[in-house]
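Quick start: what a row looks like.
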Amino acid sequence: MTQTSESLSLDEMAEQEVTVQGGDWQTVLDAAEGEAQRLVVNMGPQHPSTHGVLRLILEIDGESVTQARCGIGYLHTGIEKNLEYRNWVQGVTFTTRMDYLSNFFNETAYCLGVERLLGIDGEIPERAQVIRVMLMELNRISSHFVCLATGGLELGALTAMTVGFRDRELILDLFELITGLRMNQAYMRPGGVAQDLPPGAEKKIAETCTLLRKRYKDTHALLVGNAIWMGRTVGVGYQDLAACMALGATGPILRATGLPHDLRKSQPYCGYENYEFEVATQNTCDAYGRFLIRLQEMEQSLNIVEQCLDRLSPGPVMVADKRIAWPSQLSIGLDGMGNSLEHIRHIMGESMEALIHHFKLVTEGFKVPVGQVYSAVESPRGELGVHIVSDGGTRPYRVHFRDPSFANLQSVPIQSEGGMLSDVVGAVASIDPVMGGCDR
């Protein structure tokens, strides 16, 4: 707490730092009577209302926030640096762990960049592209469920949390059925996907979509138009289009200003130009508008998933070039990573050359031509981009991600300053930052 005497002139004004440790707070307040005060408090990094290990440094005047700053880095993992010491395929295992709520988007953005450097972006099998789109849209729904669930919990809507996580489990069950893992799958690979859909997966996905549409009404009826929910979100975290453009904010924050910017429409990838869907927008510029956008996007994602099921046709799921193609004729092994004994027997019994090639492909990896590329996808939180630099070797020279959580966190001051301390929670929840992607 800093005390500044009002009786001094501007030239003579000096600040005195007072550290309060225990004692009687009433005595401290009495001693500061007649002097201007500012109270600096920490919200986080271990706090139930900071959306993960995010530290907020708030300067408050009574119950009003006069200054807000973000302290990040508490979940730093060095993923971008670690990518320089792994081959191109192994890099997927790191990228999937950044924004752990939208891991398929991390993997796809990285793989799209590698494929462009290899010059094979036009050779990816159609079935692999459809599977990528389907899993990303299911991932978008599960991520939004977490946002609505945790945001509701932070604002006191406990039922929103139980309903959100209940429905998210349905999607995680699909991920486990298809990839063997609920999270951090490393399923997308340069050239395609790690393995084809298992038997019965398409039927299970269709049944889940039907159930999600039925349960979608629960979340909608619970919060949309709810007077208490609207009282905590309407007008909270206001940020207009000009502020979004100045800060580089994307995703629901940007679309809540009325601008229908979505990379799936403006810069289509993975064949998104072949799907029919609408870009959800609102013009409220507040937390409530962002909440409505996420609800609308979940419904649009279900439409895309159902279109993917109609577009799925038999075919390979990995590029034909054997110098690049990671073995994709795998069944899920006991370790959940797809190391099937059947495929190993096939390779070892085929020829010594095939065995040597498989060994070099797995241990050393393929070489990527010299160059650099930027590829981006529309993640649940906005534009997720990756800048990849290759020096012609079997490992990346440099990889840097443009994570939307990192960019969007710049919005915390503009959304919080001038508002109430209690509204900071709603503003941060509407931004929906995932610190694994922010710190990486």
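That is the whole record. The first strand starts at residue 2 and ends at 4. The mean pLDDT is 85.
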